[in-house]
Protein 1
Amino acid sequence: MTAGPSAAAAIGMIRSLGFTHVLSIPDSESRLLHAAVGDDPDLELIVPCREGESVAIAAGLWAGGAKPLLLIQNTGLMESGDALRGCGIGPEIPLRMLVGWRGFAGAEAGRLPIDSAYTYTEALLRAWSIPYEILDGADGLDAIERMDATAAQTHLPAAVLVARRFEP
Amino acid sequence: MIERMDLFRAVAALRTDEVVVTTMTATLQWPLVSQHPLDFDFLAFGMGHASDFGMGLASARPERKVIVWKGDGGLLMSLGSLVTMARYGPANLVVLLLENRTYEMVGGQPLPPSVDFVALAHAAGMEGGGRDGSGRIERWEALDDVDRRLPEVLTEPGPHFIVIPVHNSEPLPPVSHSDHAQRVVDLRAALGVSER
């Protein structure tokens, strides 16, 4: 079984890229990263109630000069559609997102039924023209760096799909 | 109940260098009393999320108060925002809830009649809440309340959540769909935010 990315290493990457705030709603894939953000004195953790809130708060933070990172699950990405349209894509606010890819492991193993959250995630990102990277495994945290650069260059939201659960 | 344009005039007269975020019908009438580089039109940025945006903005700019004109229908679209604000709302956030009990912008359809927005804010933990524990909930019934309390609200720590029952008897200007990206560029320029 392929190992997931290290939460500790991810924190190092997040800090090195200059993020100031992390807006996170806990989910199974990212719970260890969520906890690590909460333990980091240099990152401000905000835990909204729904992902649409996360997106709008992040847009306000960015407009005010901060650099927020969204940590959400793909189901939350779907929930946040109108906020993402209105606070990211439309006004060209370069929101950076780590998106837990619920359903990836089951689909990879061929377990039926396939989780529809897995099925629609990439299709949805493509429909919104949101560029994305896939973080699959312990290595490859540089996907976060590439996503960050893409958002900066395009002035549009960009995402990393996190295929496996974060590990310590 | 306060005539909304009178309310806007009263607030505009006391406002100095605060950011003012507007949404829905406030985006149509606030510009009649204010043309300020720190006015931000949130129309069409995301249903129900004006105060969330304001909370982010206020968190990033703690040196400056951020006022959000929010509608009661918009609040119902994102009630969880109250809970989030009660936990993380910064001291410089002021949410002025325009309570007209209708979805005015889209035809005046009534809101659920028994909703008590002050009670909802209390239940969410706004009183004594916010990031610094200085959250306040108020209800302003008359223009005298604005004149008496707003100067204090703009200087004392919050976050403030203030419910203001309003009605409108003046014609609404037409909706203007100015460029969304440019609104953000202009706001950041007015705040002196550099690109990053």
Protein 2
Amino acid sequence: MEGLLANLLNGLSWGMLLFLISMGLTTIFGVMGVLNFAHGSLFMLGAYLSMQFMRWVGSFWVGLLLGPPIVAGLSVLLERFLLRPLYGRDVSFQLLLTFGVMLFLDDGVRLVWGAAYHVVNPPPILSGAIPFFSQSYPVYRLFIVVLGPLVGIALWAFFAYTRWGKVLRAAAMDRQMAEIVGVRVPAVFTAVFGFGAWLAALGGALAAPHQSVGPAMGERIIIESFIVVVIGGMGSFPGAFAGALILGLLNSFGTTLLPDVQMALPYILLAVILLTRPRGLFGAEA
Amino acid sequence: MRLKILSMGVWEVIMRKKGLVGLLLTGFTLMLAAAGIAADKPVKIGFVYIMSGPFATYGQFAKQGAELAIDEINQAGGVNGSNVEAFFEDSTGKPDVGIRVIRKLVYENGVDVVMGLDSSGVASAVAPVMKELKTPLIITHAATPDVTGTNCNRYTFRVSLNINQNIAMAATIAAEMKAKTWTTAGPDYSFGHQSWEYFQKYLAKKKPEAAFLPAAEVAFSPAATTDFSAYVTKIMNSKADGVLISLWGGNLIDFVRQARDMGFFDGKREILMTLGAATEVLYALKEKMPEGIWVGTRYWFQANDTPLNQAFVDAYLKRFNVYPSYNAHGAYGAVKTYAAAAAKAKSVDKEKIVAALEGLSIELPVGRITIRPEDHQAVTDGVWGRTAADPKMPIRILKPIKSFAGKDITPPVEETGCKLK
């Protein structure tokens, strides 16, 4: 029982971190149709910048507040000046560009902060552990378990109920029609890209107290995020939520119950989904 | 015209004297020319480390160690009078990249020797290629026993501790602990699996009543893992009271801090970390590294109080502002070992270097190492210690330090499975 609950919490906390990162990925893809390879690097940049602010100011919350908007700002420039000229061209151009940005950011981070690992402390209120049966469970993980769904619901409400959310959905659904009714689609795209980058950087800032901050930390998480997005359905929020939960729980329970194939489980699931439901669990039909 | 006649005359004289003087003369000139070329031609050393990605900090330390050794050698007149030139390549930790950059170093840069290698996976793939390249390789970090065992060859050497040696020490320490049942947390590739395999073998010999969890209950995590909670939970809910941790680098850092938050270090289990005393890890974790844990390393900067070690630590600290890690020492030691082999061979000819490295014994900061001619593994002293806080130090130190003589921890050649001759 104890092991079961611990595994459940382990799976949930990892899943929610994946969810935060996948949300940005799926938003950018859903609205713009851009598969952003640099998403993991934006995640990494978010972690580094938050860490830097934390060192300067000494507060985790300041880092969490200031780091992600800077990444979003950089991404707005990236979208405006690098990505926009490529919209009319083949998708492979976008892939190449975002891949190049990824390499650039990975090496750039190494130039600024060096190759060493860094450790970020959680804020005092979230550090420590609560008693958990005969063991204990870290508060910070519970914080992520709670925060994930909250951010998810807020985003969903934004897309479902606000005027801005409706404009975004309109632009995603039919670009031409949206332009005809007066939506400035290029501006919407820039905003969405910045917003997706903010989500990635937020994920990085939240992951920093949980794992070591080091070069290429984004490469490790981006693959699983892609799997989450594909399983859930490209561009779908509920899909990203379900995909992240499934992957998180597969990871925790797979480690205990099926250690020999645990590493392959996400890929097996990915293959099964692609064969049976190519659009993902919650993907819209073409 | 006169000049031509004169020179013809000289040649005629030489020919008449049965060519003896001329032969001497030309021979002398050629020797001079050859010496002149040798003095101009630098000795080229190729280094292959992980310079990018999550393990890049290991490559960075190694590069610093190599640069320190090369500068010391060049200031003292070089290797056999020639300046040393270094070429650094990034293996990225991938076997195919490792092979490619070593080919490039040998064919394009024309290096005289290759040094380095962090990952056992890269080392296993690269070692057989050295036969084809006919270039000596001195491994300074990768620990798989295969490259000086079943997979050994004429050109592959290792100056650093291998898994056998490190785990022999771990088993000696474990045998004195009260833990009855052991499990492991390690990376899910050959290094983690071999560490666990040798640990079971060696500990069972020293303490026959020791029990080990079956394969399905131990924790091997993929190298890309960043969330270790599931593995920590698995170990904490198993009946094991002893844990051998062979995770390293970022994996070890993530594991330690997440495990710490989950109450893993509550004193209920005995813990051995085979590479826990890597300063790359200690600098990152600082006070987050629990105290009183037994940790291993290939070299510890405070373990040896010889003047040579003191000079190395001081020079390194002064230049790079950090204490040298074992990887820094590995690269430093390999360069010094190569210089000694070149002095012994009076040449940097690759075949002569191989012959000179076999059986070479040299004093390094870690202590005296001797390269066994039979399998090319260095017999080198090893060190483990318990982590302790020291207010004067920026990182956790080892206290007490437990040193092991190289001959006691190195398995005999017959056990390695290496057949060079």
Protein 3
Amino acid sequence: MIPGNDGHVGSIVVTQGSQTRVINAAYSAQRLAADGSLTAATLTEAEVKESFGTTLAALPGKPATFLLYFLEGKDELTAESKVELEKVFAELKRRPLPDIVVIGHTDTMGSLPFNDRLSLARAERLREMMIELGIPAERITAAGRGKRELLVPTDDMVSEARNRRVEINVR
Amino acid sequence: MRKALILAVALAIAGPAVAADIGLVKVSSGDVQIQRGTNKLPATVGAGLQTQDVIVTGANGSAGITFSDNSLVSIGPNSIFAIEKYQFDSTTYAGEFEGNLKQGRLAAVSGKMVKQSPESMKIRTPSAIMGVRGTEFLVQVDAPAKP
């Protein structure tokens, strides 16, 4: 395991035959020998660089995420979101052959299928806006996540402007 | 008729990467190829990837891939990485990702699918299987010792 940019270390579960080991500490490892034995090990940062330097150098940059909000009941972005959209364009210039996912989210008013449709419609509207601004259509996909991922947790059937958003991932 | 058919197939293989691809090559350095069935395609930056593709690097090669769920995978020199299964639902974030590192080195950062359901991403090696709960990890498979 290696720590993320934020220092957070995740975990993976290694299974070999009937043996199972969890690796969940920074620079910890399991070595699997030809005879099938598993041995815990801890590498140093320098050893990781030595073995995996070229591999890590080829890892693409982390996707960048932007949040945009529409004026209520209109297909026009808020003033703040227009500024945010300019940051999206700056990010596009920094990446080799960028691709973009536009993900619509809703608040909890209405049913799951209703919000799935609404969120996709919002994402597709923003996708069209970005195409009009000159981004090749084939590089942008739209997805609707409905009310599954609330930015501000609420009960069901609650109107909350901050949840009515569109998320843009630039990869 | 026959010519037209072959042309259509060639276009399907060589056409520009489209958003329906499961992943895109974002970094390509040195000798890198995509094996798709019996075809060998150059893994240029922007090339689209499909399930069952195998990415193969030479002694001076390395490649970086972004997948549709935002997971990132790179492979180092002398590596063979097969994408055996990949599915991702962009609405529910349900999916499965099974990669097989047959040889070489891999670095990975898990994406939305693992955040939604831990261990939905698995990396196999010739002798073990890793269930990914998150987030950044490395795998190395040494070439078998010569007898």
